[in-house]
Amino acid sequence: MFTKKSLGVALVAALALGASGVASATIVNVDGVTWNTASPFDLTIQSLNLRETSVSGVGDVLHGYGQIGSINGNNNFCMGCDLTFTFQYTVANITGNQVAFDNGSFQFYVQGAGTFSFGNPGSVGGTPWVTLSGHTAPNTAFVYPDGQLYALVSGTVSHPTSGSTGTGLVDVTGGPAAFWLNSNSVPDGIGGFADFSLNSSFLTFPARGCGSTPTTNLDNICSYPIEGNGSLVGRTAVPEPGEIGLLGLGLGFLGFLIQRRRKQADRKA
Q: Is the pTM of this model over 0.85?
């Protein structure tokens, strides 16, 4: 039978072991989404399905959604769930075939396996997993220097063709996965660091039956005439051993205080 004393000792041991487990873990699991931090590709998050709205002028807002297809090259990273996302950027400048965006944001969700439908934008949702925001950094190849996302378009801005690409940087801003993804591992070229580099390719490919003129209802697949894919590349933010040691010490001391208070309560009883 457990006594209050033994419970206190067990608490100290459990907290210390929990802290050391974080340091030695290579498999991370956040709400059912798993990946191996020891992978040579760590950390690479690639989309499977991505759809975007069309933009044509400064101030237009690019909306999009999609599904993650693999993490570190593993497509079985989310057993029993789908990892989906929505995003938006605002057009800041158009110069020829160069488009610069700012005010970028992403929201990732964990939802039941099979509940996401590529043809149904409204099917994205579930438990928030991580949020990202655009990171402003210069791209010397572009006329406009203050963007968060830079697109080089083949064809026209409103009707891009094969060969259109986008690059940018993003920061982790919140969500259950933020602890593992907020690595500050990607130099931004101006003395700072972002958490991920973003790379994408895209072209105009409306869904069958939508016609050539997009709708404006963001719950309608016909509002997303552009198809593409993308990847986020960074590093898993694994805590340093020294930080984990301090965490274990702090948790152990907390357990000691709880045990001491229980002893004092026993004497008074």
A: no
